[in-house]
Amino acid sequence: QHTNNKSLLLHPTKGNVCFASSWFSWSFTLQSFAKIYSDYHQTFDYKDFSNKLWGDIYFNNDDQTFVNKKSKNDNGNNHNQSPNSGISKKRTFVQFILEPLYKIYAHTLGSDPQKLFPLFQELGISLKKRELNLDPKPLLSVILSRFFGESKGFVNMIHEHIPSPKQGNKIKIEKNYCGNLQSELAQNMINCVSNTETAMVNITKMYSQPNASQFDAFGRVFCGTIKVGDQVKVLREGYSPEDDE
Questions:
Q1: Residue 153 and residue 33 in contact, taking contact as beta carbons nearer than 8 Å
Q2: What 3-state DSSP class applies to 126?
């Protein structure tokens, strides 16, 4: 859906898009991957670098600069340009992110673990001897989780781009609640008050148990406190306190 609100735009360079593999226990954003490079070289700002890791941008190894697609094509059409130009044929995302990631996969899955120490030293990864004896998949999960810092990119994305519970409550209640927003209940939900007599939980998804005998409800607590054994009233969509039910 088209929107002019730039705060709602999802784009890797904004840091609100995360690349991840739950199978191998890694995740990163452009910013978190750029920071790995920045921490290693300590000669450039990772935020500026991360903006050059997406789109039609190429690295020129001759003068250590970045060029966009138009500049790259212009150079290629310039007869005075050396045929051995240092401009990479691969986009920066491929050169600086995908290829190093593929290298870790290939070396780990296709090599004797004992021969991987040079790669580990290059990446700043330390492994215990017992970890080297793991099967390829668990070993790769350990290596990648150490390399990416235990889902640091995902956590940073949540911290920077997802509203806090209190901020999120205000947005959701003002948009979805059908009752009086000035009532005590509505204000408790908006302000995320926990010590109230009435607990309000918004159920967002129902999960069927394996034997299909009942459902587990996954929801967000807007106010109050709920614990195992509490009796609850299920309110239909569009409910307001003025209803008799």
A1: yes
A2: coil
Six-digit token string for 103: 């290298």
Report pLDDT for 117: 73
197 sits in the region (left: phi over 0; alpha: psi -120 to 50; else beta) called alpha
Determine phi and psi for 26, rounding to 5 degrees: -140, 155
Q: Please give the average pLDDT of every successive group of 10 residues along the chain, which has 245 residues.
A: 66 91 88 89 88 92 83 57 70 92 84 69 78 83 82 84 87 86 92 90 90 89 90 78 62
How close are the terminal C-alpha atoms of the chain, in Å?
37
Tally of helices (H runs) and strands (E runs) in the chain: 11, 7
Among 106, 72, 111, 115, which Cα is nearest to 90's? 72
In this prediction, residue 7 carries a pLDDT of: 67
Alpha-carbon span 78 to 169, nearest angstrom: 58
How does DSSP assign 158-217, residue by residue? HHHHSPPHHHHHHHHHHHH--S-TTSHHHHHHHTT--S-SS-EEEEEEEEE-TTSS-EEE
